Amino acid sequence: MLRRAASLLPSSLRALSQAAGPSMQRGYADLNLSDPQILKKFMGVEEHLGVYADSRSTLSGMLNELLESLKQLPDSSDYRRAVEATVQYRLKVLEQNDSNLAVEEVLDAHMEELILETKEELGLVPLMTTWKPWTVPEDYEVPVVDYTSADAILNAPPAPK
């Protein structure tokens, strides 16, 4: 994700600095966008998502805490199974990659963004425990809406005039 952003930003910065004139070119010449920390700061990631001294251990700890909190929910809950699968995948990626940059590339997200998502999920688990969306009354019928395939409409012969 960062590598992709870094490849896009320099060309736009060159265009911006050329349009602004020589006074602005000096300001961007010192900007090293290949450094992930500078790029994050330039893109506003730290400003909007926060800064963590050790984002790897923070994320890992929160993911493990989320796994523990999910144990309150029934094993058959689709929500529990989906979140557990996501958490276990993220923990596996953290375990198999030594650098934060590699983790961010594999998960296609900033570490700060993953921490925020995990924090929000931790807040949702108690609500799901209260709401119990997996319990459906015996007499409940799922409404069925007739579906017409877009292919049937698009590939239909033209109407006669």
UniProtKB/TrEMBL annotation:
It comes from the Eukaryota. Keywords: Electron transport, Membrane, Mitochondrion, Mitochondrion inner membrane, Respiratory chain, Transport. Signal peptide: none annotated. The keyword Manganese does not apply. It is found in: Mitochondrion inner membrane. Belongs to the complex I NDUFA5 subunit family. This is NADH dehydrogenase [ubiquinone] 1 alpha subcomplex subunit 5.
